[in-house]
Amino acid sequence: MCGIFGYIGKREALPFILEGLKKLEYRGYDSAGVSTIQHGKIFLNKSCGKIARLEEVLEARPIGGSIGIGHTRWATHGKPSDENSHPHSDCSDQITVVHNGIIENYLELRRQLAEEGHKFTSATDTEVIAHLIEKYFKETGSLETAVRKTLNAIDGSYALGVISEHEPDKLIAARKGSPLLIGIEEDETFIASDISALIKYTSRVIYLNDYELAVITENDIVIKDRDGKTLKKNISFISWDPESAEKCGYTHFMLKEIHEQPNAIRKTIEGRISAESANIHFDELNLTEKEIKNINRVVFTACGTSWHAALVGEYLIEQMVKLPAEVEYAAEFRYRHPVIDDKTLVIAISQSGETADTLAAAWEAKSLGAKVISICNVVGSTLARDSHGVIYTQAGPEIGVASTKAFTTQLSVIYLLTLLLARTKGTLTGAEIKNYIHDLIELPGKIEQVLAREHEIEKIAQKYYLSNNALFLGRGKGFPIALEGALKLKEISYIHAEGYPAAEMKHGPIALIDQNMPVVVLAMTGKRYEKILGNIEEVKARGGQVIAIANEGDNYIQEKADEVFYLPKSPIAVSPILAVIPLQLLAYYIAVKRGCHIDQPRNLAKSVTVE
Ligand code: M6R
Prior knowledge:
Blueprint: E1 3-8, H1 13-24, E2 31-38, E3 41-48, H2 51-60, E4 67-73, E5 88-89, E6 95-100, H3 106-115, H4 127-140, H5 143-153, E7 158-164, E8 171-176, E9 181-185, E10 188-192, E11 204-207, E12 212-217, E13 220-224, E14 236-237, H6 253-259, H7 261-269, E15 273-274, E16 279-280, H8 289-294, E17 297-302, H9 304-321, E18 325-329, H10 330-333, E19 344-350, H11 356-367, E20 371-376, H12 382-386, E21 389-392, H13 405-425, H14 430-451, H15 454-464, E22 469-474, H16 478-493, E23 496-501, E24 518-523, H17 529-541, E25 545-551, H18 556-560, E26 563-567, H19 575-593
Parallel strand pairs: 17-18, 17-19, 19-20, 20-21, 22-23, 22-24, 24-25, 25-26
Antiparallel strand pairs: 1-4, 1-10, 2-3, 2-4, 5-6, 6-7, 7-8, 8-12, 9-10, 9-11, 11-14, 12-13, 15-16
Helix pairs in contact: 3-4, 4-5, 7-13, 7-14, 9-13, 9-16, 13-14, 13-19, 14-19, 15-19, 16-19
The structure holds 5-amino-5-deoxy-1-O-phosphono-D-mannitol (M6R).
C-alpha cells in the first residue's frame, strides 16, 4: 500500500523516480508526487490521479536535481486530492517526506504541533512527520537526529523517505512495519518499497529491518539501529529477471501473468522433487523429521486469494496427512486468542509477504509457541524473514493487483508440502507419493492446453459481460476455487459475485436465481459429480444460466449447461490448480469488455500493509 521510490547519485533523479513509481503504481494509484533538491533548494510537484497525470504536471513545471523522493498513494487518512498527496512538507517547505503506513497517534501530535504554531495543509497522518522533523531540527541542528527523535515520537507503521534543504546531500530512509529496500549500484543508490521497482537498475539490495534508519549520501550508506548504533548489513542478490516486471507485448500484466503460470509452476517444483525416489525437499523449510512427527494439527492463516489457497490446503492435509486442519482469516486469528501450542504447525501464506494482518497472525502464532512456516513469493519479505521456515513460490514478480500466478504456485507448494508431511508421517506410501508427484509434473502441460483455448472463454465473456451479478458454485476442493473465481470477477470487473459450496445454494442464494443470473459451476467428474449435476438442475429449473467447467469427454453435461468449458482430464488432487485458469480468464475478458482498469482496479492495492 503506497509505493516509495528515491534516488541519490550523479544523474537526474526525476526519470528514475518516475520509472520506479510506475513499477510501484500497483501498490496504490490515487495520487502521486515527487520532490527533488537542486542547487540546495527543495522542489515539489504532486497531484491527485495516476502517475500519468503527475507526468503532465511535471511537463508544465519540470523539476531537476540528482537527489529526490517520490510516492504513489493509496489513501488511508484524507481523501485522494492534490493536498493529501505525498510528499508532505514542513511549514517552511524545507523538508519533504514520503510515507507508507499509518501513524496511529497523529491526531494528538497534530494538536500539539498546531498549538506550537505549525500550519497543516492536508488531512493526512503523514504531515505530522514533516512538522516533527522541522521542530526537532530546530532543536538539534541535525537532520538525522531530528528524524530519529520523530520516529521515537510516533506510534504505528512507516516506511519513510526524507530529504531537506538543511542537509541537501542526504536522503534518509527508515522503516517500521512497512517494507523498504535499498538498491545499490556504483555511484547511485535507490530506495524502494519493493524489488520490482529496483530490478531494472540493480540486483544488489539491503533489506531494512524495523527500527533501522539509513543515512544515504552519494558515496555512502550508513545504517543505524534505534539507538544510533551503526549496523553491519548484508547485501542480498535478487535473481528476478528485469523482463519479468515488464508487460512484454501483453495488453495487461494480468493476462501476461495468467500465461506465465505453466512456467511459474515448473520453476516452483523444479529442484524440489524427485519422482523416482518420492523425495521432496525445501531448502529453507527448517523443520526436522522429529518436529514434523510432533505436529498434531495444522492451522493456515492468510488473506484474500492466499486464504483461498489455504482452503485447498485444508482439504489436502486432512485427506493425505490425516491431521486436523483449519483455515483462519489472518485479521480474525490475530485478535481471537487462538488455542495453539508447540504441536501446531502454522502455515502463513502471502504473495507479498508484507500483508499486515498475515504478519500479525504469524507473530501471534510464534508467540504462542507454534512453528510458523510461510509460503511467500517475495524473497526477503518480512513474513519470510520472521517465520521459522519459508517456502518460496517461484512465480516471479506479480504486478497485476488480481493475483493469478501467485495463487497457482501457492497451490503447487501446498500440494508438495502436504506430500512431504504425509511421507514423514507415513500416511501415504512411497508409490502413492510418486504418483502424486507425477500428476503435478504433468499439470503445466495441461494448463498450456487450457490457455491455448482462451478464445472459448472470451466468447463466453462476450455473452455475459453485462450481467450485474454472478454465482460460483463448487464442492470439495472446487469450493475454494469457486470463491477464487468470484473474487477475481468482482475485484476487476466490479460485478457482484459470490462463491458458495454448491450444496449451500438451497439455503438462501437460490432466491437470487433468475434468467439474469449466470451461475458458474465447477462440475469436474469425481465423487460428488452426481450431486453437482443435481445443483445444475436446480439452477436451470429457476431460469438461471449455467456456465459449467467440466472434464473433457463429459458429453452429458452439454445437455444440462448453457456453456461448457472442458478441462483436460486430471487427477482430483491437482484439479483445483487447473480449474482456476478458465475462471481467471473469464474475469479478465469480462473486465476488458466492461472497459475496467484490469491491473489497477478501483480502491484496491496490491500489497495491503495496513490493518
Ligand atoms: O500478498 P498477499 O498474498 O498476502 O495478499 C493477500 C490479498 O490482499 C490478495 O490475495 C488479494 O486478495 C488479491 N487482490 C486477490 O486477487
